[in-house]
Design brief:
The protein is α+β, with helices and mostly antiparallel strands. It has five helices and seven strands. It has a single domain, classed as SMI1/KNR4-like (3-Layer(aba) Sandwich).
Length: 138
């Protein structure tokens, strides 16, 4: 993960502190595990670096499933929304209420834009780190 993204996440975490008055805007809880691997260069790797570093990560309507239990539970969305090529995708969060996906081959983030049971339609964004910088953190 580039220093720019790390710095933004750290700055937001420090600004938010423990103040509940900011929880509507964002909520960041850092994982205090010191055994983190910090050598990720691909989009999938950057996502996993963030997933390993934080216990909870939300910015307005964008929530990332970084805790293992929620992450695993939400993978069922691939089936519920009829995502084609399910093995190429992981659900990484949602832009409430729609699932946010990461293509594990291309590293591109997409968001499902329809309700379950309809033909799956996705809006494609950019690579994960750029998505974080451009669309989530600004």
């Amino acid at each position: 993960m580039r220093k720019e993204l790390k710095a933004k996440l750290e700055k937001i975490k420090n600004i938010l502190g423990d103040g509940c008055e900011y929880i509507v805007l964002a909520h960041v809880e850092e994982n205090l595990n010191n055994n983190l691997i910090n050598n990720y260069e691909t989009s999938l790797g950057v996502y996993y670096e963030i997933k390993n570093k934080y216990d909870y990560l939300r910015f307005a309507d964008v929530i990332f499933w970084v805790d293992e239990e929620t992450f695993n539970e939400r993978q069922i969305y691939l089936m519920l929304y009829g995502v084609s090529g399910k093995k190429e995708w992981i659900c990484i969060g949602e832009v409430e209420p729609y699932p946010l996906l990461l293509n594990i081959k291309t590293g591109i983030v997409s968001c499902i834009v329809n309700e379950p049971g309809l033909k799956c339609e996705m809006k494609e964004y950019v690579m994960f780190e750029e998505f974080m910088n451009k669309y989530v953190l600004g």
